[in-house]
Known about the structure:
Chain A is of the alpha+beta class.
Amino acid sequence: MALKTPEQYKQSLKKLKPNMYKFGKLITDVTTDPNTRGTVEGHAQIYAAALGTEYADVFCTTSHLTGDRVSRYLAILQTADDMIANCKMKRAAYNLTGTCTGARCAGHAAMNAMWPTTFDMDKELGTNYHDRLKDWLRYAQDNDITISGALTDAKGNRSLSPSQQPDPDMNVHIVEVRDNGIVVRGAKVMICGCAAAQEVFVLPGGAYKDADKDYAVSFVTPKDAPGLTLVEARHPSDTREAEEGFDVPVKIGGTTQAYLFFQDVFIPKERVFLAGECKYTGSVLANFTAPYRAAIGGCVAGQGDVMAGAAALIARANGLSTKAFNEKLTQMFVNNETTFAVGVAASALGRKHPSGAWQTNTLLAHVNKVHVATLPYETKRLTQEIAGGIAEIGCLPSYVDFTNPVYGHLVQKYLKAASSAEARAKVARLIEWLTIGAGVPGCMHGGGSPDGAKIVIRGSAGLDRSIGYARRLIGLDEAIEEPAAKK
Amino acid sequence: MALKTPEQYKQSLKKLKPNMYKFGKLITDVTTDPNTRGTVEGHAQIYAAALGTEYADVFCTTSHLTGDRVSRYLAILQTADDMIANCKMKRAAYNLTGTCTGARCAGHAAMNAMWPTTFDMDKELGTNYHDRLKDWLRYAQDNDITISGALTDAKGNRSLSPSQQPDPDMNVHIVEVRDNGIVVRGAKVMICGCAAAQEVFVLPGGAYKDADKDYAVSFVTPKDAPGLTLVEARHPSDTREAEEGFDVPVKIGGTTQAYLFFQDVFIPKERVFLAGECKYTGSVLANFTAPYRAAIGGCVAGQGDVMAGAAALIARANGLSTKAFNEKLTQMFVNNETTFAVGVAASALGRKHPSGAWQTNTLLAHVNKVHVATLPYETKRLTQEIAGGIAEIGCLPSYVDFTNPVYGHLVQKYLKAASSAEARAKVARLIEWLTIGAGVPGCMHGGGSPDGAKIVIRGSAGLDRSIGYARRLIGLDEAIEEPAAKK
Amino acid sequence: MALKTPEQYKQSLKKLKPNMYKFGKLITDVTTDPNTRGTVEGHAQIYAAALGTEYADVFCTTSHLTGDRVSRYLAILQTADDMIANCKMKRAAYNLTGTCTGARCAGHAAMNAMWPTTFDMDKELGTNYHDRLKDWLRYAQDNDITISGALTDAKGNRSLSPSQQPDPDMNVHIVEVRDNGIVVRGAKVMICGCAAAQEVFVLPGGAYKDADKDYAVSFVTPKDAPGLTLVEARHPSDTREAEEGFDVPVKIGGTTQAYLFFQDVFIPKERVFLAGECKYTGSVLANFTAPYRAAIGGCVAGQGDVMAGAAALIARANGLSTKAFNEKLTQMFVNNETTFAVGVAASALGRKHPSGAWQTNTLLAHVNKVHVATLPYETKRLTQEIAGGIAEIGCLPSYVDFTNPVYGHLVQKYLKAASSAEARAKVARLIEWLTIGAGVPGCMHGGGSPDGAKIVIRGSAGLDRSIGYARRLIGLDEAIEEPAAKK
Amino acid sequence: MALKTPEQYKQSLKKLKPNMYKFGKLITDVTTDPNTRGTVEGHAQIYAAALGTEYADVFCTTSHLTGDRVSRYLAILQTADDMIANCKMKRAAYNLTGTCTGARCAGHAAMNAMWPTTFDMDKELGTNYHDRLKDWLRYAQDNDITISGALTDAKGNRSLSPSQQPDPDMNVHIVEVRDNGIVVRGAKVMICGCAAAQEVFVLPGGAYKDADKDYAVSFVTPKDAPGLTLVEARHPSDTREAEEGFDVPVKIGGTTQAYLFFQDVFIPKERVFLAGECKYTGSVLANFTAPYRAAIGGCVAGQGDVMAGAAALIARANGLSTKAFNEKLTQMFVNNETTFAVGVAASALGRKHPSGAWQTNTLLAHVNKVHVATLPYETKRLTQEIAGGIAEIGCLPSYVDFTNPVYGHLVQKYLKAASSAEARAKVARLIEWLTIGAGVPGCMHGGGSPDGAKIVIRGSAGLDRSIGYARRLIGLDEAIEEPAAKK
Lengths: 487, 487, 487, 487
């Protein structure tokens, strides 16, 4: 069986050549370094769950390539049910880790984006990208690897296209084409979960025109490829991760984002899936964003579940009934289920692509992005409101002070309410972590910004059809033209 | 084929004995009386669409009883796809009529609610309700009839149960059991579309305990049964419906609600589906509300589509580009798609009942009720905001003044903007009708109130499971009890 | 004393030459015609309150011209306290009438807008507009008259300026200048409360440039001036106003809007306050909109108060405790107080103009417009949510049916809950009237649209100052330029 | 002159005996310790501004005790204008520091709360608390000291009153009464700005009944009183404060909260202002919360200003026009001005107390608390939305990596957009700090929780009066009783 154990997974990560830095230091072992061990543990939860009993069907499915039981993160979405299962898996992953496990999720989205696009390219251009992708995927499934997905370029000045930038490297581009592959340069930034990944799946960062054809490039590369350097970005309270005690309340999860610097990295042609065919970049983006933005509703619902649970715990620890917070908890449930449900609906109303891929409904997926960029923020606010002052910013002493031999007893005496002081402090710290700490996910711009989603919504909502309904209802035939937009 | 034409449908309505009143007068022909012809026309649109080309598959399906092609409004929901199709049908019905076509929709929900419940009763109690229902449904399909669904009782004092009311008739109840049937008394109120219905499907209005067993009753009756009297309620601007011109902008739709007074109406036993088995009333309600509240998201999305179209038309008629209203239109699209999508997701995540019925997901259906009770109100507000003053309350002269021989030319001269005065006035009137006129649907309390939905949400959202996730993340074993709610 | 009694006020209205139409008919007596008597009664409440005990100080003040006790609606705002009193007066007027009493309110705003502007013009141009205005105001105070304020032109195509319109009359303009006055043509539309007014105060409808100087005109005219014709617009359920019983629940209030057609109306020069000085039109608008948009927060709060009261009554009539609706009522209170408070703050933070006028804070006044265009809509929705189905659209039979000799007893039997059937029906009808009936105010676009307010907000919010704060905090000196807006 | 320089202020802090801990260590000098120097610098800004030119009138006023020019933070609020000036001062303090300067603000609120209460007590009970307070205040003004205000007790189990707690120390209480003073025990927790304070002003934490009279205690104490120990709580990213570079973007501000442990602290009677008179505790709370909750709207507006500035800067640094974010910026402006304006209105509509104190309007102050607990959260969300991914959580490398000699050039190369890399990084870091970092204020529960405010709103909103309006409008005399609340 292809499925790996958490231990096998971590061993595999240890074997990679260290090329990741934080705070000016090389991270020699991502599985033990305080800056990365949390995200590795989070991803390891997925390996464990796949082999366990309760969640096996959530995290595993059957490979349509081999018939093997494989991680759902390495499977091609082929039906509405596959895509709904993907939404559920994202929710479960958050339930288990409290965090983004981006190195499985974004890589999964990337391979699924390239599946129909490479199929179309091969059919229309006579290329063999689809076969390359299929071969690589078989390898990935066989080894049950974890793959980051890298879409976002450094971009430079947002008013200029890649080729217009003063520095041509602001977006990843092909600097050399060789018989056996290509050489790429540039940076992918804010890439999630790289510390926990064995490989990186790169997509073009935008829909490009001819002038930017060198930027139309997709490939997959080992994370430790020569010329590739990673720097981990910092996040709130990240230095706590080297501390002891409950100030990092979650040890089995954690989110990281990295900057990936490609300094003339060679990519063998078997791992290149798009190289200059800029007219397909739009379809790559569409094939990436629709399932990604549908399923992200499951992610944030999953974290919302944890927030609801934490809010209930702290209320009780404070000595209050959760019933006193019925309205607020209900709103949290509504928020959680809404992002989950809109994703499920986008899944259900998709359509089959000739390549066998299931294509998520565009309109609903982008509607979900708008919700994902708003509702979880209200859920966080409500969590803090229920929790009372103790879980608001800056209101809980450190673990070191909690356990101080001289005055720690005072801290503990006065933190005790309807549970032990320690239980109350742990839950309060969890809420800080979830709402204003390292556990907060980047759901606003991750996978693209809500303003971009709104443009897609306007393009796909069918306003002309709606105008037709209105006209029919009142029997209106007169043409009424759209004037030029006023300044 | 069982499908009837609009003309056959109307002829059938004409044959019913008149027993419906409004403004103190008996309505002798619902197809021509100004108070009811609009809603009849609205329902007739459905008959027409079923026989047309564009919408046939939306409004028709195959009977699982006979294999005949029947109206989807007369079919039992058996799969997720059936239920998704139901959501789409509701949206299309609104697109075509701008209004609630409640006499098909609520009856459909009622029969689908009784399908699994009668199945369970027969199995557990040895009754033959399910067969009765099946027989009646075959008849209904064969004759393609339109059936109101009647759930809401007069209720009296909301703090008292039916049997505690000073007047025992405040809820419909069985006053006599005969060999061949039952006699019922009471009132069902605010029942939608009765004018357009041939029959009425009655459900119990609540989940009852033993003391209220006489109130546990479900049956179907011809609308013109002896002892049944209907009074149409009034709605905004209802007297306009007897006027000429554009002040009633929509002639092919309209919503009505009636009060049904049952003064010792006899129901033959073949048409009785529940009579005293109070322990099943909870399941009737659950089986009614879940699909109803899921699908109502399609309804309000459908009207939201019309509002988006009308808003775009009036903007252009005012001389403005719809682009100037991009943010507002996008929010309208988001609102429309959200209620639609959450309903679709509730459909997709349902489960099969042994009776063959598809049971919509409870949690998501009730989450949708909350959205339905809020989002359309914002959509209306946005429509008025885009429209400018002309479509706000009280800002457009009457059709009579518009066409007055003495000063009508002045009205027209000054109503002209970027379209003809008449086109602009018609669209403005449509917006009044949709946002603050007779076209406004009763989506707040129709099919039950949002506060009731919130209770279901709290019951089904899985807070204990979420607490478990939070505990697992921080390794918390200590029990933290729920205290009694504070006063 | 200058204050008139309600009876004197009505007698004065009766003396005006009839020139107002609705439904194709001339309204010969506005005090008795069903289409106008409600708004006249509403305005009469103000006369009564001014002479009563409870509200006298709310509705009266001391004239700074004569020292007489005069209606606050005829006084110049000279201090922050005056303007705060204005906000309170607007709220009280709504409390007493449930409606807009626009013929006192908008005229008051118009005269206050012209006070500083005419002062500046006279000083800078050597005109004598300010003295004219002072003379007229003395006359208005002496006779305690009611004056509509007319700002909104028909406008035609919104993309074109007045002089660019194909029809030059789309905005009111001067068509002839005579030695003793001017002749004006055009239409002012959607003007509130004209039926209850003796005079009309006209302001220019926009801030005009030289090309549109003929449209820069302000004057006051008797409502029955030769050449002036009024057509009342229709509003929801307006024909009910000729009916008996509770279907028009409020007899002492009512809102109307009229279209005013100026067909070459002569205005004597003593009543002309601006004629061609287009560079002052911007200041007229600013001087009008700031106090108007501040005080309108009091209006909608006043109606919100009535909604809160009605919601509490219907809850109890339904047999439910208002405590069950604590969250909803609290939100209604918050909404009411917010629009009131932001108006009060705009008043408090104004500044003194050399003319003696108090100028309301621009930024806060326009922020309030945004709230006024959103919060009352939520208040309405909450009112309907609390009320239950009976007060939602189309759910209550007519008074005629309620009192029908044959079946009226059935209607009454089943409407009874925890109060009498009649009390419950009356309250439900009040809620319909307030939320979706003739009592709904035009708070979205009345006094200008929220999008216009947002432009003012952006212009006055001080973004550059805020950028300075951010720079100072991080010690940032580097210039970062605003790029051109992207298409 | 009483006003001190920033340097004098800091010297005075240095003279206090160290009794404050964080991370297990005694903070020997709060002006230089990385954990406290930021908040000290923030408070020092106020001293500097008071002596400068631009803000002198904002931060200073005339003592009504001595006629001296004193810090407004040490003055008694006596008029509406004083209270409006207080709102403006809070906004300015945030503009200058980006943070809460709680040690001046809460102490100011505490002394103003006790002013009318001690006046009433002396009059009714013959005590001499008011004179004690006056004497102390004269001293405070003469020395221009900074005073923390301490209200919140540890509380223990929220369902139990202080005397019902298993541990009687969960709320600060009098354990001994001596001739010359009292001895107190307990903890005040989450007290803002203590590091920057010279004294602490203690108020009772609730409105107490007789059984809890020992908990009714108010006094002021030097921060370094024997028996008083402070532990600083931790906040997001607090360890960064010991780092170099831009990762702590703001050096002239910072918020801290401390736990204050009173282990039998002696308070001389001249500094005791309430000791056992529990019936006055309700009025203390009311006198504290109303001005506090009004003015806090200015605080969060002040930080909102900084967020608007930061958002504009990052948009431009990204190469985008702020015009592209017009809707979002406008919403931020609306949010900022709303909390500011409702506070100003609460100030303007207050009333004079016989003691000379100005009492802020209760209803509007608590309405503002509701806004303060919601609107700033949306402002933060919008700031992150405008900023793009770079300012979202976890997306920017550390200063150490930015300046790393080996790969720092890569980080800088790829962070450059339309400004320098450093400017862009600094602004992005400021946004992290403001929205999810150490700069986030505790505006949810600081000064009391929104649910508490809602209870006050319901009590003071005048529902019965509103019911009267509704009754009068429809001529309803029938009594309709409030039923018992349903379970």
